[in-house]
Amino acid sequence: MSEEIRLQKFLANCGIASRRKCEELIVQGKIKVNGETITQLGIKIEPNLDKVCYNDKEVKNNNASEYVYIILNKPIGYVTTSKDQFGRATVLELIKGVSARIVPVGRLDMYTSGALILTNDGDFIYKVTHPKHEIEKTYTVTLKGQVTLEDIEKLRNGVDIGDYITKSAKVKILKIDNQKNISRLEIVIHEGKNRQVRRMCESIGKKVIALHRTKIGNIDVKDLKIGKWRYLTKKEVNNLFK
Ligand code: URA
User: For the chain, which residues make up each domain, given as ranges?
Assistant: First the structure.
């Protein structure tokens, strides 16, 4: 027997749109279940039994047997390996109710928060992590002390992080708080060396207090509370490589 699932969740799982947008589609009368237009939120369907149509076209959950793509707003304190030899909490523990064998795409340090994609699509992982595709990753980093314009120029042009000179990066000052003696920067990179942002900041002599990834390509986690996740829409997945 298949499980019941809320209509908006089913639509979002099928990649129609975000869950919130799917609620709007329901209220606007654009969704039919077994031929009947539904305008109330809260109804549940059985995906294997009920016929769901959007603008009179049947919606099918290809994800059920295919690939799933998830964006998580990772909290600090979780590791991005699938299993941790020291028994630390892994990000997979935050993704409940997904039977596909998903894994994180790339990594975030245990003490970095923010956008992390998980999927069971190996080709997608290869493409996203391959430098050829130059997918931008956007970070907000809080540093101890006050940065200078010279520091910013160095980060923009590339710095020596020990075993590698970083490629050019977009760097913007978001805030310098003289009283608290902290600086906040936005750094956009399109590479993914181990602990790259932290090592870039260390190379200009600054200690990282907090690091958060706000975006992967155009996919951000503004609409997700820390620790929460959602499915990516097909459009979001395809747009990553444009
Ligand atoms: N750069 C880092 O230093 N840490 C991360 O987790 C991601 C990018």
Answer: 5-61, 65-132+221-239, 136-216
